[in-house]
Write a structure and sequence with these properties.
The complex is a heterodimer of chains A (385) and B (130).
Chain A lengths: L13 H5 L4 H14 L3 E6 L4 E4 L1 H6 L4 H4 L27 H5 L5 E10 L4 E13 L5 E10 L1 H38 L5 H31 L8 E4 H15 L3 E5 L6 E4 L1 H17 L5 E10 L2 E7 L34 H11 L3 E7 L3 E9 L9
Parallel strand pairs in A: 7-9
Antiparallel strand pairs in A: 1-2, 1-5, 3-4, 4-5, 6-8, 9-10, 10-12, 11-12
Helix pairs in contact in A: 6-7, 7-10, 8-9, 9-10
Chain B lengths: L5 E5 L3 H13 L3 E5 L2 H11 L4 E5 L7 H11 L6 E5 L4 H7 L4 E4 L4 H13 L9
Parallel strand pairs in B: 1-2, 1-3, 3-4, 4-5
Helix pairs in contact in B: 2-3
Amino acid sequence: MNSPPQSGRPAVTPTERLGPESDGHRLRELEAILESLVDGVFVIDGEARFTVANWSGSVMHGLRPEAVLGRSLYDFPAALRMRHFDGRPLQEDEHPLARALTGEVVRNFEKLVFNKETGRDVYFRVNTSPVRDANGDLVGAVEIARDVTAFHELDALKDEFVGVAAHEFKTPIAIIKGYVGELLRTGADLPEARRRMLEAIARGTTRLSNLVQDLLDISQLHLGQMNLFIERVDLAELVERVASAAALSARRHEVRVQPLQPISVRADADRVKKTLEMLVDNAIRYSPNGGEIYVELHVADDHAIVTIIDHGVGIPRDRQPRIFERFYRAHADTPYDTGGMGVSLFIGRAVMRQMGGDLWFDTEERSGSRFYLSVPLWGRDDGRS
Amino acid sequence: MTGEASVLVVEDDDDLRQLIAEVLAGEGLSVRTASDGHEALAEIAERGMPGLILLDNRMPRMNGPEFARAIEQQYPARAPLLVLTAAADPRAVAAQINAFDWLAKPFEIEQLIAAVHRALAANPGAPAAS
């Protein structure tokens, strides 16, 4: 109510207009505000019975306010199929109002509710707080619930769009890649300049193809649809293959790996290979002065751990906490910015974790980085199912 | 089907079908083509079972899985299937239709040739035309 006074009259606040004697008016005004709110408002007393349920909140849950008022909080979670966003049922003591009734303030709690009226799931973001009397004793709790279904659906739609678009890119890329590959393969008599042109097209197509695959991976991971093909894999053989290929193609770097004993792990071989290639590529990319890249492999407890060690530029301290975020580029706007979408570490870690392994790092700015990739060992019982 | 091994390429994209046919013909294989599952069934009915079927997964009219089901019902001894797919999970696509192997789009020419030879080698007794 800070708008400037108009036509010379002083600004009047609602409170002043009602006057101190108008408690009844205040109450009705508050009721009108509650009923007009877009967000849901619920209040329970110390016995967990609803004393306030506004129109928005009730309707979003597929109920009428009179069907909520006076009822127990615990009548609803099962009836409304209350769940976490990932689908796990919400236990009674997890309900944010139940937690507030123990004195806890809960912020940004996410719950999923089935609305019987519309037949659709509703995604809520919820804040709850305890209510205390003048003596500080707990006498109830309040919940403000916001319907975030539209955001959630938009997010899912975006991932589906990215997935469909990436899928559709693949056939035209296959045509370009295929014909260029065929021209190079059968063109023994190609003039050198033509060959270089075709090789550049082939490299560009491979990059495009990798970008499309990354986009597809991201959408699959976010939609929870990434399928892995877990089998018994000799990690030592995989590490040696990746390291020797990198050693062959590196011009100013030495990629070194110790001779290794076979180590059987439970893994998706393609995915581990891609993640290792990405880590070795990063080690080379962020060691602009050349030098040695070491790849080591050892066993710790029930996991095998690959370590990729470089003595390059490291990762700036303030950016380290974010390097596994989607689309985060740790070297953006630095002299070491070599482009990319900032998704490979995100994908790598998500995939390794889905496999029961992990991906993490140690780094020191200007001294280099160590990235660790762990994979579960192949257990005695693994081949039996 | 005597002499050279024959491959039926079932792919709806004209350019990609042409590319695969040219590469495989260059490998000395006898190549037949179809642009969807219906055409492929007609082709097999007319000229017999090939040694290998390269099958695109997503096609209009009759897609890869529909074709695989149809051929399974009509021909007890069908040729092995090599699935071509842009799907995020090509292995799952191949497993779903009991395919011999899969090739993810986009593929290297060398991968295509190797996969075709592997499938043909694994199926030396490919049924001849009936």
